[in-house]
Amino acid sequence: MSSDDDRYKIVSVEANGAVAPTNAENVLDDNPSTRMSVEGIGTALLAEISGNNVKVNSIWIKWYEGNKRTNDFEILASEDKQTYNQVFRGKSTGKTLDFEKYKIPETSAKYYKIVFKGNSINKWFSITELVISPLQGEIEEKILEPQGQLDENGVLMIFSSDPEGFSWSMKGDLNNDSNLKLDIDGRAEKVSDNTWAVKGRRGSLAGGREQLTCRLNIHGSNKSESFKNHEELRRREWMTDPILDIGDQETTIFYKLEGFKNMNETVAKKIRGGSHSSGNNAFKSACVGLLLTFNEGDDKLFEKELFHPRTPKIKVNKLFNYSNILDRWIGDKITSLRQPDGSVINTQYIDTDPFDLDGKPKNNWKKVFEYIDKGKDVVNWKGRYSTIRVDDNPEGQCKVTFKFFSVRSIKNISSSPPPTTTPRLGEELSSSSFSSPTEEEIFTESFDECMDDNN
Ligand SMILES: [Ca+2]
After folding, report:
1. Which of 18, 79, 238, 337 has its CA 20 to 30 A from that of 148?
2. pTM exceeding 0.85
3. Number of CB atoms found within 10 A of residue 99's CB
4. Nearest to 113 by CA among 89, 134, 97, 137
5. How many CA atoms lie within 13 A of 316 on its CB side?
6. How much distance in Å is there from the Cα of 66 to the middle of ligand 1?
7. How far is the CA of 295 from the CAs of 32, 257, 264, in angstroms?
8. CA of 109 to the centre of ligand 1 (A)
9. pLDDT 10s digits, 233-255
10. Which helix (H) or strand (E) segment is 230 a member of?
11. 132: CA distance to ligand 1 center in Å?
């Protein structure tokens, strides 16, 4: 390919009848909240790409309300803007707000016309984003398809297990699992052989408001913490036990969140931490958290709790925009891996369409962010607990149905690295980060036993 080809892109779009604020250019602004919209069967969006003789084999479209409407459409290609050939005829899935990829026979056409044939709801032809690129397929494979072996449930293991480290996966009666502390309302309810459901328990915030919380704590060791400061933990590299504490790990859970009322909440995976509601070291028992927000939007998805209960959240470079994660099955996977220089690469993955018709994992893992924790406040030791936590308003149901939950100590195998992208480097936390916690960050002692085993 010539250098022209390498840099080619959509140079212009037009759609008769599409006027501001829903004009055609809105499909090119890389912003899913703006759209091109025009009414009527047979209306069309025409795109011209730069460069000459560029080979195209796929068209990527984000549809407006793409998770609610099925759109019927065709794609025509032309070299001269006069004679068009049909290269695609079909429907969108009606299941996603994300890009859908439509494969077309390889062509070197310069003009691409998407012709609307109707949708399942109304007569509006509405697209939020359009990409025409032969490179997208390659980019997708590099960034979005992690490699690895499958575990016994068919779940992708991006990293190999460390045979000498702690490993756990859900099986048997979850109410009687010595490594699992359920901090929920009542007992876990068995839904089927490997699927369980729990509900959040009630608790009080320091400000007096109540909320529901649901926490699944996997603990490696049963020993209590004995350290004086974070420097000691960094030097020693473990919190209570050099083998059973959980440091480098791949933690995976598939869940369906139902009946939630607080749309600003997150699913937090809190790792490398310990107990923090009692004892002299309680306030120092740091952990870090990797978050998925319920709704797309916030990109403060890494949190660091060095001094409980203050939990400053840190912005990450979001690589994949999932939409709402409520009321449907979601695969949630994190990996955390210490590097030789002491920094830690923490990575969040999501699978928004996790199961095939037989309920087996499809392993469509997409990287949401990668955050390198480093500097003087790095949390790089092994901790007692790995926790999945989700909260809700007291009016909510806070119901979590889950399966294939596992926590595995991992080894960094250099021959099979995870997909790489440009990570955002860890920002060092200034002391002011800890000075003014919000009400949400402060829980009463009796309520916040997130990582306390109550012994
Ligand atoms: Ca847009």
Report:
1. 238
2. no
3. 20
4. 89
5. 32
6. 13
7. 13, 12, 7
8. 24
9. 999 999 999 999 999 999 999 99
10. helix 230-236
11. 14
Taking the centre of ligand 1 as the mean of its atom positions, its distance from the CA of residue 26, in whole angstroms, is 4
Cβ–Cβ < 8 Å for 451, 275: yes
Distance 355 CA to ligand 1 centre (A): 29
Question: 240 CB contacts (<8 Å, ≥6 apart)?
Answer: 221, 223, 224, 225, 226, 274, 384
Q: What is the whole-number distance in angstroms between the Cα of residue 103 and the centre of ligand 1?
A: 21
- Give the span between the Cα atoms of 335 and 407, in whole angstroms: 10
Report residue 283 as tokens: 């306030």
What separation in Å is there between the alpha carbon of 294 and the centre of ligand 1?
A: 21
Residue type at 143?
Answer: I
Q: How far does residue 13's CA lie from ligand 1's centre (Å)?
A: 12
Q: How far is the CA of 64 from the centre of ligand 1 (A)?
A: 9
Count of beta carbons in the 10 Å neighbourhood of residue 430: 10
Q: List domains and CATH numbers for the chain.
A: 3-144 (2.60.120.260), 149-454 (2.60.120.560)
CA of residue 99 to ligand 1 center, whole Å:
12
Confidence at residue 226, expressed as pLDDT on a 0 to 100 scale? 81
Q: How far is CA 231 from the centre of its chain?
A: 31
Cα 17 to averaged position of ligand 1 atoms, centre (Å): 17
